[in-house]
Every structure is written in C-alpha cells, then in structure tokens.
Design goal:
The complex is a heterodimer. Chain A is of the alpha/beta class. Classes of the chains: A alpha/beta, B mainly alpha. The interface of A and B includes residues 600, 619 and 621 of A.
C-alpha cells in the first residue's frame, strides 16, 4: 500500500514537474534554489522503496537509485548556483536514464518490455508463443529507446535555446502527448498480433468456433472436391463421436490412409472418452489380435467388420455438439513400427502429445504460419502424428490429406508455402534421383526424423527443394529432445526446457517438465556433450562390442571409415562365426564410386583396411566388406541391424558375372547370363579387344555345374572343346550344362538367344588329384 | 614346392574363411600378418591357422615364440617349415 502511494506521488510529481517549475518561476516568483525542493521531494519519494529493499528486482532498484541520484544532483546544482538551467535539465536526465535502462536489456536480453510482459503473464516464459512475443517486445524496446533519444535531444534544445514557456510546454505537455501516442499505437498493433497468435492452441482446448467455419482445414492433390473446411471438420467429428458413443467398446483401433479422416476419428474417440489405439499396421492378423469385445476398429478403407468412416459420415447427422475432454485423462496408445520385430505399444495421455508439440512449437511455430503441411511419412507413427497432424491442427495450418509419395507431386505445390514432414528414406531417394530443383515461391520448411540424414543427402535436398532439412532427435518415450541442421555442424541443440546430461556410461539423460517420470529418462544413445549444452550423437549403447576380448565402439569405426571422404553411408556390425569379427557395409559416395571404378572388390577391401590401420588395431578392423549402392532401410528410413547382417550372410553374388535366369530340369541346367566388361575375367587378355578366355569359360561351367547340378569342383581333364566365336563383354549368353553322374561327364554349350553358337564341349570330372 | 604353396594358400583361405581372395591373390613372399601390404591377419587368425596347419599337414607349433612367428611370415616360410618338419618326423 505504501509503495503504491509512493509510486502515485512519484508519478504525480514527475508529470507535474515542468508545470510546477514554470508556475513557480512566473506566477509565484520563486527562486530556483527554492524550486529545487520539488526535486528533493522526487528523490525522497524514490528513496523510500529503495531503503525498504522489499522484494523488488535489481533492475527496479537500479531505476529508483538512478532517479534519486539524478534528482539529487540537479537539486544540489540548483541550490548552489541558484540557476534555473539545472532544474530544466532534469527531464533530459530522466530521458537519458530511461534510455540506459531500456537499452541495456537489448544487450543482456531479454528485453525490458518482454520482462514486463512476463510479469503480467507468467506462462509466457514457457509458451511456444514466446518466439513471437520476444522479438516483438525487443522491437518495442528499440522503439522506446529511439523515442528517449529523440525526447532527450528535444528537451535539451528547449533547455538551451528555447524560452521558459516553450520548455514547459514541451516537457509538460508535448512530450507526454507523444508518449501517449506511442503507447496507444503499440497497443493496437499488439492486439492484432495477439489475435493472430491465438490461432495457436492446444487441440484439447478447441471449441466449435475456434476457427472460422469456412477456413481451409484439409486439402488434397486432386481438386476442390477433396477440400475440407473447419466447418466440415467439427460436423464430421460430431457424427463419428455419436457413432463411437453408441458402441459399447472401450477402445478403438485407428487406421486411416487419409489424414483428414484420421484426425476426425481421433478427435471423435477422444471426445467420446475412449482410448485411441494408433497403428500403421492394419494387416488382418494384427487387427484380429488387437480387436476384441472391448476393442473395435475404425478405418477409411474397407476391412471386414471394421466401422468405415465414410459410411458413418453419410449415415449420421451433426448434432451441433462439441464435447470437451480432459487431455490428462485421454489415452492414446501409439504402436511403434517395431524395429526389433514385434510392434511395441507406447501408452500416452493426449496431453503428452500436445506438450511434445508445444516444445517443438517453441522453436518452429513460425514456420507453420500461413503454410500448408504435407507429409511423406505415415501419420500413425509418432513423428508424423505430432509434426504433420497435431502441430498443423494446433497452429491452424491446412493438412494435406494423403501422403505425398512421389517427389513429382512437390512441383504441383510449388506456389504454396510448405512444411514438408519427410523421412530420411524419402530425402535420400530424392537426393539420389536426377530431379531438377523446384523453384518454390517461398522456401519450404523440411523436417526429417527417424534416423540420421546423411550430409550429402541433406545438401542435395537443399539444392532441389531449397531448404537444408532440420533434423529432429527424439524418441517415443521422450518426445523431441533436440534439433540440428547438419550444414551448421553435427551438433544437436536441445529444445528449451530439456536438460541434457551425461550418465556415467556416456549415455544421454534428459529431464524436462514434459517427461512425467521422476528423474527424467535415460536413452541408450551415446553422446558427446559440449560445454554449451549442445551434443553429438555417437551411437547406441549396443554399439560397443567386444571382439575377442577387445572393446570397440562401432560408431568409432564408422566414423573412421567416413573419414576417407569416399563414403555416403556406413554401418559396421559385429559378426560371429568361427570367431568374432567386424563387418562393414559401405555405400560409396560419388567420389568413392569414381575412385573404385572398375576396381576389384579385394582392392577396395584393402584400401579401407589400410586406411583404418592408421587408427585401429588389426583385430577390430572389419574383415568383411560389402559395397551396396545404398544401405538397406525400412520405410521409415531406419537401417536395421538385421538387414545389414543379411548382407553378410550369403556370399555376395560374384561381381564377375550376372545370372539372369536359371532353369534346371533333371540333370540339365539352362542359364541366362552375361559377363560385364568390368569383370576380372577379361583382365590380362587382349586389353583392347576383350573376349572371354576359354579357360574362364570352362571354369564357369565347372562352378555353375557345381552350384546347380551338384557336380564336384575338381576336373580330371577337358575331353572336347570347340570354340566357334568369341564372347565379347556384356553379351547375353545362354549356357546349357548337363551333368552325367555315371560317366562323370559335364557337357556345356554357350550360345545366344538367336541360336548363334559360341562354344561347346565336355569335361570329365575326377577325384582330388 | 609349388603344389605345397598353393595347398597352403587354400588352407589359409578356407580355415580363416577369407572372402574375396583367391590363391592367386596371395603372394608367396608377402607377409601374412600385421599391417601393410600383406593379408593383414591378426593374432586370432594366427591361432586358427596354427590349428589348420596341424590338421592339414600334420606339423604343429609347440609354442608361440619369435621362432614360430618367423615361420608364419609368408607362404614361402610356412612351406619351408612344413617341409623341414615333415622330413624330421
């Protein structure tokens, strides 16, 4: 109460100051020395709260202190010199001190105006809207700083050159009018911005008229009839909700190809107070396994006994209701893709999903402003669900109903501002294709998650789609934790309010207000944590293996292989057979492909092994190598260890020849094949005029007969051969082999499809020499 | 001698399950073990190969010492070792 009284008397004194001084001089005939008492009073009023130290901020204290000092200084000067000028200078000094106060926060941030805004709305600090409010407040702070500069200069001018009257009119009236104008102008702009910001809200806080009923809600690639407005959405949710309420089942399995139907069904299930089970898998066996007396199935494609959403929409009427639900109680079970094989269920509350989106929005909400959201990923997985659907819903961005499967479709959307929710799988394919760049009217925003995006794929994406993808690091358990654009280096920046620490084992541990488990969550990801809080991913804990008692981190070996600069992607796995060893699957980049053009695999193995021997012990240098064009990955862009293992399980096809077709009948095999010009078979024989040497032909016959007819590999002698015409490289040939076990004879015949004969003959097999 | 060398090479390839290497790729004088231009075999391979040589040629290495390491240096030295021990035995 006392402080309030002090504030009011201070404000009154400050506002009236120029008038008081003017009246004192002209009407009451007081000397400046006497008038300086007014300043003394101002100092006194400000001194009181300062002495009390009652819970005021440092900055507040600074402000009061500064004013006291200025007032006392001016007062003292006026007393000593008895000159009016020092009294007139007080408004200048006040302007200057306010300038210092405001401007200092511009450098040490957050700006003063933002601090004031946070004082009136405490939630602002944690809100996704902060990213809009903060820069806005900063601008306002700058505007005020400019005003104080102008006002200070104007006040100085009135002190020095103007009349006393002019001084009083400017400082006592004009200056206040200007301030008032500034305040009201800013207020109007702020209200407009707030209206725009209010578009962003939690799904659970939606009401029937959260958005204009004719505003665009969902669209598709095939014209106007697929467009859905907010009005359609609320009506359809009402219809499906009634259907779900009418059924006894407690939980509903959701699977819709169309994102619009999906969100309608999801909201309807939530509003009906039931559990939503979200799964990309809708195979008959899976549905049968999940569904029971208590669990029903809703979908947008025909599937047995399921409720078809289109059917419900045409049958039911909008009852005009919109049921609010408690997001803290609403259950959403999200099934994972099951990297390890069996789909796992991750039970969540709806609020967790919303909070997750909110963390993300705290950085990227602006990207969704006036944008259209399209996806190349499945919306049943957590990544697509949160960023393509919930984020779009919360920010009010229209949703593309169907998945964008072909990159050609992107061209049709180039006039729009896009948010593209993509998987590394999609972007890698796009990067590997010969797509010309798309001249988007405005650069899109591209998100990638689910696995690391190789840097050259990211670079190619930027070339084609005009944006270097932002990668999100997160998991179903933790939500999104950090983000990066790999062109700025490999480090991930945590989202605000995520506290990342390192466990003793070197794993990432995260705490955030949105993880409800006490003590946070420890991931299985090994990281290197920088002092500034950013981090680099080093691999999974499972990635440390022991090879014959020697501990080695697989990511380290991968990192060294990458250092050759010849590699687009690489995975190293531990294998065991007769012994334990490492095996490396390497997809070469353009440089690598050029370097090893026409090289034998053995040379490539040797190159990498020699390179690694600079850094690693022999025992942990990969023993086996595969050089596929691309590493095998699933639809989510995840590279599964099992798929890499599969690369090593069978000896790879011999690169020296290609088998197109094999037909075995009895003891005869007919094989369609060709020998590429890169084959070793041509080495050293007539380099300028390559032909398949006779000895190689016989060898091929022996090997293929062994493989397809089960003959022994050892040859006793060549009985008869006839070479009629040479076999040049890249010629499709038909090889017919027959094996007579009784006589131990293999007969062969090389010809082409047109019947042209190359060679034939027979070989006698024999016991080991 | 030539025959023995190629037999040794076959034993190396099959016992160590080497990939992408044919007997022709193994130089008679190239080092089998250690870094550099040879086969780059490691200590586990050495154990494995010792067993395979015993099985295939009937000669065994009693102890791992500098002497045996010398015998393991190349195909040629292995061949010499096998020949010498067979004659003795």
């Amino acid at each position: 109460m006392r402080i309030a009284a002090g504030k009011i008397s201070f404000a009154a004194l400050s506002v009236l100051y120029p008038g008081l001084i003017f009246c004192g001089l002209y009407f009451w005939g007081l000397r400046p020395r006497i008038l300086s008492l007014v300043l003394f009073a101002i100092a006194l009023v400000n001194l009181r709260p300062l002495l009390k130290k009652s819970g005021q901020g440092k900055r507040q204290a600074l402000k009061s202190g500064l004013l006291v000092l200025i007032a006392l200084a001016c007062c003292a000067l006026a007393c000593i010199t008895d000159n009016i000028l020092s009294l007139k200078f007080y408004p200048v000094a006040v302007s200057a001190s306010l300038l210092v106060l405001f401007a200092s926060t511009l450098f040490s941030g957050p700006s003063l105006v933002f601090r004031l805004a946070c004082m009136s709305d405490k939630s602002l600090d944690y809100s996704a809207l902060r990213q809009f409010v903060e820069p806005y407040c900063r601008k306002v702070t700058i505007v005020w700083c400019s005003f104080f500069i102008f006002n200070g200069i104007a006040a100085t001018y009135t002190c020095l050159s103007g009349s006393d009257k002019m001084w009083a009119v400017y400082n006592g009236l004009i200056s206040y009018i200007l301030m008032g104008l500034l305040f009201s102008g800013e207020f109007i702009i702020r209200k407009k911005m707030q209206k725009k910001m209010n578009q962003y809200k939690y799904v659970s806080s939606f009401t029937r008229d959260s958005r204009d009923s004719d505003s665009l809600f969902a669209f598709d690639g095939n014209g106007d009839h697929s467009i859905k407005t907010w009005g359609d959405f609320v009506a359809d949710v009402s219809k499906v909700r009634q259907e779900i309420e009418a059924k006894p089942q407690r939980a509903w399995l959701l699977n819709c190809e169309d994102s619009y139907y999906f969100v309608v069904a999801l909201l309807a299930v939530m509003q009906a107070g039931k559990t939503a089970k979200i799964s990309a898998n809708h195979s008959q066996e899976f549905v049968k396994e999940i569904c029971s007396e208590d669990v029903s199935f809703i979908t947008d494609h025909a599937a047995g006994e399921a409720s078809q959403i289109q059917d419900i929409l045409s049958r039911r009427e909008d009852d005009g209701n919109w049921v609010m639900f408690d997001p803290k109680k609403a259950d959403v079970d999200v099934y994972t893709s099951g990297t390890t094989g069996k789909p796992k269920v991750s039970p969540k509350k709806f609020i967790q999903l919303e909070d997750e989106v909110n963390i993300f929005a705290s950085q990227f909400l602006g990207k969704y402003e006036n944008a259209f959201v399209i996806r190349t990923v499945d919306h049943h997985h957590i990544f697509g669900l949160t960023f393509a659907l919930l984020m779009a819903l919360m920010s009010g961005a229209p949703i593309r109903r169907n998945i964008v499967a072909f990159s050609d479709e992107l061209k049709e959307l180039k006039k729009r501002k896009l948010v593209i929710i993509a998987s590394p799988a999609f972007l890698k394919r796009l990067a590997g294709s010969k797509y010309e760049s798309i001249d988007f009217a405005e650069a899109p925003f591209i998100l990638s998650a689910g696995g690391a995006l190789p840097e050259d794929a990211a670079a190619a994406t930027e070339r084609i789609l005009k944006y270097w993808p932002t990668e999100i690091y997160g998991s179903t358990e933790t939500g999104c934790m950090a983000h990066r654009q790999s062109k700025n280096g490999p480090l991930y920046t945590p989202f605000p309010h995520n506290i990342i620490t390192l466990t003793q084992d070197g794993c990432l541990h995260v705490e955030s207000p949105y993880i409800y488990d006490e003590g946070g969550f420890t991931t299985a990801d090994l990281i290197k944590l920088e002092p500034d809080g950013r981090f680099m991913l080093l691999g999974r804990t499972g990635s440390i293996v022991k090879i014959e008692e020697k501990r080695i981190s697989l990511p380290e070996v991968e990192m060294r292989i990458r250092q050759t600069g010849l590699v687009q992607d690489v995975r190293v796995i531990a294998m065991s057979g007769k012994r334990q060893y490492l095996a490396a699957a390497v997809a070469l980049n353009q440089d690598g492909k050029e370097k090893f053009k026409g090289a034998r695999k053995l040379e490539m193995n040797k190159f990498f092994r020699n390179f690694l021997s600079q850094y690693l012990e022999l025992i942990v240098i990969p023993k086996r190598w595969r050089f596929p064009d691309e590493l095998p990955q699933d639809a989510m862009g995840k590279i599964k260890t099992a798929d890499i293992q599969a690369l090593f399980e069978d000896k790879q096809e011999d690169p020296n020849y290609k088998i197109h077709n094999v037909n075995v009948q009895g003891n005869t095999a007919t094989i369609e094949m060709e020998v590429p010009s890169t084959s070793d078979f041509f080495d050293g024989h007539f380099d300028s005029f390559k032909l398949l040497p006779a000895v190689v032909q016989v060898n091929l016959v022996m090997n293929l007969a062994h493989k397809h007819l089960g003959s022994p590999l050892t040859m006793h002698k060549i009985q008869r051969t006839k070479f009629m015409s040479p076999i040049p490289p890249d010629t499709k040939v038909i090889l017919e082999i027959s094996y007579d076990k009784e006589t131990g004879r293999i007969a062969f015949d090389f010809r082409n499809a047109e019947g042209k004969k190359f060679s034939n003959g027979s070989v006698k097999i024999g016991a080991e020499a | 001698m030539e025959d023995l060398n190629s037999k040794i090479k076959n034993v190396i390839i099959s016992s160590l399950e080497l990939e992408d290497i044919t007997p022709a790729d193994i130089d008679d004088d190239a080092p089998l073990f250690g870094e550099g231009e040879g086969l780059g075999l490691d200590s586990i391979d050495a154990l494995e190969l010792g067993l395979a040589i015993k099985e295939n040629f009937g000669v065994s290495f009693t102890a791992v010492n500098d002497e045996t390491r010398k015998h393991f240096a190349s195909v040629n030295s292995l061949a010499a070792f096998i020949t010498a021990n067979k004659q003795n035995g």
